[in-house]
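Reply to dn_fold:

You asked what the input looked like. This is it:
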Amino acid sequence: MNRLVKIFFLYLIPVFIFFALLFSKTGLFSKITEIKWFYILSLSFLVSYFTTPLVRLLALKIGVVDKPDERKIHQFPTPRLGGLAVYIAFASVVIYNFQFSLELKGVAIASTIVMLTGFTDDIFGLSAKIKLLMQIIAASIMMYYGVILSFMPPVWWGDILEILITYLWIIGITNAMNFIDGMDGLATGLTAISLFYISIVAIQTGQNYVMFLSIAILGSSLGFLPYNFRYSHPASIFLGDTGSTFMGFMVSSLTVMMGWATNEPVKAYSMPTLILSVLIFDMTYITISRIATGKVKTFKEWIGFVGKDHLHHRLSNLGLSKRQTVLFIYLLSASMGISAIVLKHGRIIDAILLIIQAVLLFFIIVILMLKGSNNINKN
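and this is what came back:
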């Protein structure tokens, strides 16, 4: 009986809601479809929720399984390729509901390249140099279609600087999301939290197009999360590079597409920095730490280095369980996002003060992490 009840609530009811949302013309569900953001959120969630078990079966059938080793913290072989379900959900909802603008075409093509690169890496394995090259190509295509940071004077050196910073932002955030994908639910949850705040700012500024795209990925991430961050069991499937790089690329692309604060560049760049501050901090900290300790000496060594020195590893050294560590990082990211929402109606001085506050908060975390590392070394 318990099994039947579980099947009813976990599968039959969502199936009914899915088809009702998809095909209803009258009644309650037709009213829901008029609330566009809720409709997109629900539909993307359900597509991802139903597609994930199928992708898991595919990963098991073709043998794409992440096996434990000394560099990893999971204890059981776990299928990856979960990001394919997230991509399918996002792509199907966007194709079903949107007219493609020039910018969206660029993001769609570029994100698909990133996803396919991650998919190939999950199955066959790719060198870090090839993955980086494909990310550069994807970012180039996106910028060709007009998705590029714009804040410098309209002169040749200003254009070059905008291109370089766009490359740095897109590729940096894409890989930061990939690097932090080391605990159950961590990258998926951070993606969802980031997109939630991006959606809120889009609503505040009347940017409906960006809001709907953000919500489509938000729903796709939430539909995958129950399989990736379970209450009493390990994850049944991982994102893999297929998902973590795709999510990182989409989050970074949407922050570039967004108009954050017209004619106020300090505020405009402080807001996405706060929303994605956990990713930025983790990438910055491990880079400085690895160079300072001599673990990496060249760019080639940096892109190929794998270690247990990320934020989630160091928080675990403080005695937190894996679940507590993930929830701690969720709360940290949510707190930074609230600062960005408050800043929308703030002044430039508020932006400066909130960035300083974020730096001080992360500095406190660094002190705690170093203390945890010292305790481990003593033992």
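The chain has two domains: 1-34, 35-378.
Hope that clears it up.
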